């Protein structure tokens, strides 16, 4: 038997290929009965996919209201300011008010079609730079493939919603990626960001626990601080200072989701001067206090 030599990574072709690295990280996935969904001016540093099995749910972004229907998914990019409501039980005009429970395999969903919102949601991140696309609410028509995956996922969530097996994880990731491919080319503008900005974004991600300054970051790519600040704002549609704050709060949300760290622990870990400074920044970015976010009393 003869072996070929000098074949890079086992590829027999001399044609170079470029692939886009998307680092999908799922934060949570749930299937709920919602009796109340009065949430106002929410902003979160992660992606969300919403689907309602029945009518009555609405999403509001800026001056536009989206009447949610069972034939569509609704994708909300990070840092989008939006509100939600269940129109049959709309009680509050401000704040975050959610009342509901997980759907189990003993629940007959047909008994809740009029009284509750049958609501499925996923929170996830894609990694830089794809967590910095333009904010908005994206309505995606359910294809046959997405319907099949959605049925599988929701049925499994009724049986098990904590310890997910490999097959479920793979199908859930497949569902998210397929949904994203239906958004269109505007999602992928992020891959054309100036390489100097991408270099600094990666540096920020790797040093998110430190106190980062404009001069320090500009020095990474040998630019004057003011020139770099202008370049960053042009490429990312956000100031460098606000970008760093957003990424720190995104990391804080991740820690609250997956650890038992206290608010003080997270504040110290991410380089804030104290809990109160951290709490102010957290509320500015998300619209919620860290305590409310940590309690999980929202969707």
Q: Features of this protein?
A:
single chain, alpha+beta, Jelly Rolls, Arc Repressor Mutant, subunit A, 2 domains, nine-stranded antiparallel β-sheet, 9 helices, 9 strands, globular
CATH superfamily caption of the largest domain: Regulatory protein AraC
How big is the Rg?
Answer: 21 Å
Please tell me the overall pLDDT: 87
Q: Approximately what portion of the residues adopt beta-strand conformation?
A: 15-25%
The portion of residues assigned to helices is: 25-40%
**Number of beta strands:** 9
Order of helices and strands: EEEEEEEEEHHHHHHHHH
Structural class category: alpha+beta
Poorly predicted segments: none
CATH topology heading of the largest domain: Jelly Rolls
- CATH class placement of the largest domain: Mainly Beta
User: Sheet with the most strands?
Assistant: 9 strands, antiparallel
Count of spatially separate domains: 2
Give the SSE map:
Layout: E1 25-42, E2 47-52, E3 57-61, E4 64-67, E5 72-76, E6 82-86, E7 96-102, E8 117-125, E9 138-141, H1 144-159, H2 166-181, H3 195-206, H4 214-220, H5 225-236, H6 240-258, H7 263-269, H8 275-286, H9 290-295
Antiparallel strand pairs: 1-6, 1-7, 1-8, 2-5, 2-8, 3-4, 3-6, 5-9
Short description:
By secondary structure, this protein is of the alpha+beta class.
């Amino acid at each position: 038997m003869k072996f070929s030599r000098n074949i890079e990574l086992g590829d027999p072709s001399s044609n170079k290929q470029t692939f886009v690295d998307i680092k999908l990280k799922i934060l949570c996935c749930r299937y709920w009965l919602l009796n109340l969904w009065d949430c106002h001016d929410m902003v979160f540093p992660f992606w969300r996919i919403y689907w309602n099995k029945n009518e009555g749910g609405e999403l509001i972004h800026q001056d536009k209201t989206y009447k949610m229907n069972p034939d569509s998914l609704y994708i909300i990019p990070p840092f989008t300011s939006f509100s939600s409501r269940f129109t049959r039980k709309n009680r509050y005009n401000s704040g975050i008010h959610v009342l509901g429970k997980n759907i189990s395999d003993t629940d007959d969903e047909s008994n809740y079609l009029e009284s509750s919102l049958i609501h499925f949601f996923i929170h996830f991140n894609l990694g830089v730079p794809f967590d910095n696309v333009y904010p908005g609410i994206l309505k995606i028509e359910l294809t046959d493939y997405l319907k099949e995956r959605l049925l599988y996922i929701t049925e499994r969530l009724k049986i098990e919603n904590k310890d997910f097996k490999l097959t479920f994880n793979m199908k859930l990731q497949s569902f998210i990626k397929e949904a994203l491919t239906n958004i269109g080319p505007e999602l992928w503008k992020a891959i054309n960001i100036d390489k100097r900005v991408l270099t600094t974004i990666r540096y920020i991600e790797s040093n998110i626990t430190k106190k980062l300054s404009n001069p320090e970051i500009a020095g990474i790519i040998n630019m004057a601080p003011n020139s770099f600040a202008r370049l960053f704002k042009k490429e990312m549609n956000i100031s460098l200072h606000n970008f760093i704050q957003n990424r720190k709060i995104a990391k804080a949300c991740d820690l609250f989701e997956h650890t038992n760290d206290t608010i003080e622990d997270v504040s110290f870990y991410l380089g804030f001067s104290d809990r109160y400074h951290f709490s102010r920044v957290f509320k500015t970015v998300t619209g919620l206090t860290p305590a409310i976010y940590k309690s999980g009393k929202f969707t």
